[in-house]
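Worked example 2:
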Amino acid sequence: MNKNLIQIHINDSIANITIDNPPKNELKMSFFEEFAECIAQISENKAIKGVIISGQGRHFSSGADTNELFGLFKNNKTIPDEITKNSSVFEQFRNLQIPTIACITGVCLGSATELALNAHFRFAGTSALIGLPEAEFGVIPGLGGIVNTQKLVGTYKTLELILKADSVSSEEALELGIIDYITNKNELLNQAHLFIKSLPDNYNVIRKKEYLKRINSNTIDNA
């Protein structure tokens, strides 16, 4: 599959999804359609044992195309159908029964952060920047970002991050529990691949904390 905004290739039973809209890798509306097709393809292929999603080039993604986003709300007094559909796509990603890792480099903002939060694991480069800046534009995260952030950092910190439109470094995100692992950006994809290969065949995301201990074992070398 090689379309306008997404590339996907299978390597050693792992699906590698690349957001391919550099330099910012904006998540245009057509991205969500392509992403839904990717998820369906992965769900049907029982040989795939894990998923890694990353961005082409320097950044993971700057988030939604704001012109498209504001266009959806221009003549709507309720939540546009597209937002509901896009949220459903992210939910399908979250519900995959195989390990999924978001590999974050550069900026990961807005809808891109919401995408990453729906991955089972989040690995980041040392200079990554993660945030939910929607409040700067007079909106709030609409693709599950509020609920998923609250699960990780609690209500108070979630409100602070969203209302202040704060972005945090990968180091601070690791301390907060938003990020699970930091390494040199050049090693990110390789470490994610090794980590997935270290996981058992009876993988279950509810054992996430147990699996993360493998990062400190000989299976995954710390950078």
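Residues 29-44 form the longest helix (16 residues). The two ends are 33 Å apart (CA to CA).
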